């Protein structure tokens, strides 16, 4: 099957990270590679953000990336990209008119609008993955929806026009249904995890080594207020011999000038745990598994998490996970089996969960092993590709299901 990905706001060739654009980049790259392994011909169209970038790149993972000239060749927000959407859509239309793909799959709301402008005029089958809905962001971040008004309006238009929507978790599917998208046009396919990178360590520390150090909590995610770190710092204050490691944000040498880092450090001082709370700054994606494997427990307590992949990465490393039951966390974690779920705003429950893990090694080991099993069975990129392929086939019932279609320049 010839698959055209549209990811105009971020290229799959950039380094992945924990920010939303970095997560989208990793998703598009890994899914493209997994579909290519299944015999599909995948081309990703992204907006040119560097004048020196070649027009077309063949990635090592056997998919192509096309840099589309639309607006200044520099990074900018998706709202600014809309001024150049006609140029982007015109390029897609010209390419697809000559060599039409079997499926167009857009990633993010701005990409969806540009994909629809081209696909609908040519009668092409199109699918949409939003990677976070504006209405959900507005609701959990508080205040007026005005900041996300244009995004929300565009998402409604795109959702109505697309042949099928791929939601990444059940809460997003429910929100799409509230927006008026028929449930029969929604597939739920989660984000995947690189199970080769995120895997348990071969080294098992001795009992003496474990008892000689503080028990370690690692909190993962972007260094933003929505991460919910206040509750974790307060929990550390009532748990002796526990340290908290917080990766994320700018490089460590720049944390002193970063507002959220300053706020968290002040909070740690107020609760008397400044010597047990360490902000380490940006950690490269490739280095994250090593950090996770040093933890006795990983905590993910955001108010809002569009990708919901961070706890699964920790689960894949065999580390016990405690998470807020938001967005895809409910899908990933079977409470008490593959991890522990705590309601938002329940600090006492968080402390109870931490004590259970710290005081009962068999509980921690069971959660870690079951979490790894869950990650392998549900979240491998090969499994995500199979489920995405099923969504394509449901959207294109008249397309022959032979994956081994000869490559074309589309």
TrEMBL record:
<feature type="domain" description="Glycosyltransferase subfamily 4-like N-terminal">
    <location>
        <begin position="26"/>
        <end position="196"/>
    </location>
</feature>
<keyword id="KW-0808">Transferase</keyword>
<dbReference type="InterPro" id="IPR001296">
    <property type="entry name" value="Glyco_trans_1"/>
</dbReference>
<protein>
    <submittedName>
        <fullName>Glycosyl transferase</fullName>
    </submittedName>
</protein>
<dbReference type="InterPro" id="IPR050194">
    <property type="entry name" value="Glycosyltransferase_grp1"/>
</dbReference>
<dbReference type="InterPro" id="IPR028098">
    <property type="entry name" value="Glyco_trans_4-like_N"/>
</dbReference>
<keyword id="KW-0328">Glycosyltransferase</keyword>
<dbReference type="Pfam" id="PF13439">
    <property type="entry name" value="Glyco_transf_4"/>
</dbReference>
<dbReference type="GO" id="GO:1903509">
    <property type="term" value="P:liposaccharide metabolic process"/>
</dbReference>
<dbReference type="GO" id="GO:1901137">
    <property type="term" value="P:carbohydrate derivative biosynthetic process"/>
</dbReference>
<dbReference type="GO" id="GO:0016757">
    <property type="term" value="F:glycosyltransferase activity"/>
</dbReference>
<feature type="domain" description="Glycosyl transferase family 1">
    <location>
        <begin position="214"/>
        <end position="372"/>
    </location>
</feature>
<dbReference type="Pfam" id="PF00534">
    <property type="entry name" value="Glycos_transf_1"/>
</dbReference>
